[in-house]
Design a protein that fits this description.
Helix content is 24%, strand content 22%. By secondary structure, the chain is α/β, with parallel strands linked by helices. It has three domains: 252 residues, TIM Barrel; 50 residues, no CATH class; 79 residues, Elongation Factor Tu (Ef-tu), domain 3. An eight-stranded parallel barrel has the order 1-2-3-4-5-6-7-13, surrounded by six helices. It has a six-stranded antiparallel β-sheet with strand order 19-18-22-15-16-21, with no helix packed on it. A two-stranded antiparallel sheet has the order 8-9. Helix 1 runs parallel beside helix 2 and helix 5 crosses helix 6. The longest helix has 19 residues. The model has no long low-confidence stretch (mean pLDDT 85). It binds iron/sulfur cluster. The site of iron/sulfur cluster has 12 residues, from helix 7.
Length: 433
């Protein structure tokens, strides 16, 4: 099945949905209120999802709705009720994971396209064929597959669409098949309430406190016990292999996965049969949605037009906060190189969004900016809009009373700054390193 490759972006709320489309996404995925993973953050309501679907269709794009939890018995009836409520809204597909719910959906709504969630962990062609025979239109592949494995699935089951994640945070577990959050916080990843516990800061501790906790040690002046200077785990069947478990003053991050970034692998993914390039991050910011959608749009368009990859698209992604990037399992098993043991922070390369343009007044040439991060008069900035980037120097800042100020402080307050022209809707200002 040959389908034109699409860029599929996250739509965490109505604003991000519009931004994703403005910055080049062909399709978006959004959570319906109760039965989508990421239930905590979804800002869509039953009413606004209807508006979201209308908006996407008016722009000639596609929207897929996530119903991808694994409901326990108690939730089955409510889940099916929700299914009955969303199908009439005519999304372009439902993203589902639970086999029982999928069977029920196919029986009730045979014409409603179903996409199998990555949570269902499809890792081989036989499973892909099984889902195809059942009536599923698309498989959202497990993130643990190599390009060769994807190509083999496509060769053996060419009549099912394949979607693959190309960007964003990844689980340290098998794509959500994980009970860390449930165990530590009573919030179940497969019920949509993961607390991302794998990214928390952990400490190696004796009963009384951390190895580095001076208070906990009887003789603080003594050197630390040897293991605190570099712990490793050894597995009895693998002599010579050591898995680092280290702790510094901030703790230890032994389960913190790097973020996926496969922007340079789009040609290989297409060659392997992938038709939908999915960006993770419904809970991330509007700015993240804009920058990722545009970078992948540009990279895909360049490839389809026969142009070489533009490294500037990767640089744009590097400027976003990230836990350092990995290409995941696509080209090799990343093993420990897929983890960021050093810190749980998410930083870009010295650049950050300064704010979002809310309004532009052509009379005064001033734009109202909702400030996210502090910046000063005279700073070099980049104006980011769906049309492209423009380097500017902000030589004037006005506060909400119209008084000239030397700097704008973060935290959501508005200021006015001059811009050379109207950047249109959905523009941002980014600080430059
Ligand atoms: S705790 Fe981490 S690995 Fe587990 S489901 Fe949540 S994000 Fe994934």
């Amino acid at each position: 099945m040959e389908t034109k490759p699409e860029i599929l972006a996250p739509a965490g709320d109505m604003d991000k949905l519009k931004i994703a489309l403005a910055y080049g996404a062909d399709a978006v995925y959004a959570g319906i209120p109760k039965f989508s993973l990421r239930t905590r953050e979804t800002a869509f309501t039953a009413e606004s999802i209807r508006n979201g679907i209308d908006y996407v269709h008016r722009h000639g794009k596609n929207i897929y709705l996530t119903l991808n939890i694994f409901p326990h018995n108690l939730k089955v009836d409510a889940f099916l009720k929700e299914l009955d409520a969303v199908v009439p809204l005519q999304p372009d597909a439902l993203i589902m994971a639970d086999p029982g719910m999928i069977a029920a959906a196919l029986k009730r709504y045979p014409d409603m396209p179903l996409h199998l969630s990555t949570q269902a962990n499809t890792v081989n062609w036989a499973t892909a064929a099984f889902w195809r025979d059942l009536g599923v239109r698309r498989i959202i592949l497990s993130r643990e597959l190599s390009l060769e494995e994807i190509a083999e699935i496509h060769d053996k089951v060419p009549d099912i669409e394949l979607e693959a994640f190309v960007h964003g945070a990844i689980c340290i577990a098998y794509s959500g098949r994980c009970l860390i959050s449930n165990y530590l916080h009573f919030r179940d990843a497969n019920q949509g309430t993961c607390t991302n516990s794998c990214r928390w800061e952990y400490r190696l501790a004796y009963e009384r406190g951390s190895l580095l906790d001076v208070e906990a040690r009887q003789h603080p002046a003594e050197p630390l016990p040897a293991p605190a200077r570099g712990l490793v785990l050894h597995e009895s069947e693998r002599p010579g292999e050591a898995f680092p478990v280290s702790e510094d003053i901030q703790g230890t991050y032994l389960m913190n996965s790097k973020d996926l970034c496969a922007i340079e692998l789009l040609p290989e993914l297409i060659h392997s049969g992938v038709c939908s390039m999915k960006i993770e991050g419904r809970t991330k910011s509007a700015y993240y949605t804009a920058v990722t959608a545009r970078a992948y749009r540009r990279a895909l368009d360049a490839h389809l037009a026969g142009r070489p990859f533009d490294p500037e698209d990767l640089r744009e992604l590097m400027r976003l906060s990230n836990r350092t990037y990995t290409t995941g399992f696509y080209t090799r098993n990343p093993r420990q190189y897929g983890e960021n043991f050093r810190d749980g922070l998410s930083e870009g390369v010295g650049e950050a969004v300064a704010g979002r343009i809310l309004h532009y007044d052509p009379q005064s040439g001033l734009a109202v900016l909702e400030v996210k991060n502090r910046f000063s008069r005279g700073e070099k900035m980049t104006l980011i809009s769906p049309g492209g980037n423009l380097d500017i120097i902000v030589d004037h800042i006005e506060d909400e009373k119209g008084l000239a100020v030397e700097c704008a402080h973060g935290g959501g307050k508005n200021v006015r700054i001059p811009l050379p022209s109207d950047p249109g809707d959905f523009a941002f200002i980014r600080k430059r390193a």
